[in-house]
Amino acid sequence: MDYIIYIVLAVLGVIFFVAQGFTKRKSRDRKSRKFMEDYNREDRSKSKDQA
Using CA atoms, how far apart are residues 29 and 37, in angstroms rounded to an integer? Predict the structure, then answer.
């Protein structure tokens, strides 16, 4: 019974590190910009000249 606090802290630590891994992976995916490969930005200078 004396080690309950250490067990709880260990479980919280494991949960924390797992969450950090998922967060880092999501951040890396955003930085790679794979999700914007098919995005074509329209050229605003052309639309101003034509209007």
Answer: 12
pTM of the model: 0.48
pLDDT tens digits, 1-51: 789 999 999 999 999 999 998 887 777 666 666 666 667 777 767 655 554
Is the CA virtual torsion 34, 37, 38, 42 positive or negative?
positive
**Are the C-beta atoms of 6 and 12 separated by less than 8 Å?**
no
Q: What would the 3-class secondary structure string for 1-51 be?
A: CCCHHHHHHHHHHHHHHHHHHHHHHHHHHHHHCHHHCCCCCCCHHHHHHHC
Cα–Cα nearest to 12, from 23, 24, 4: 4
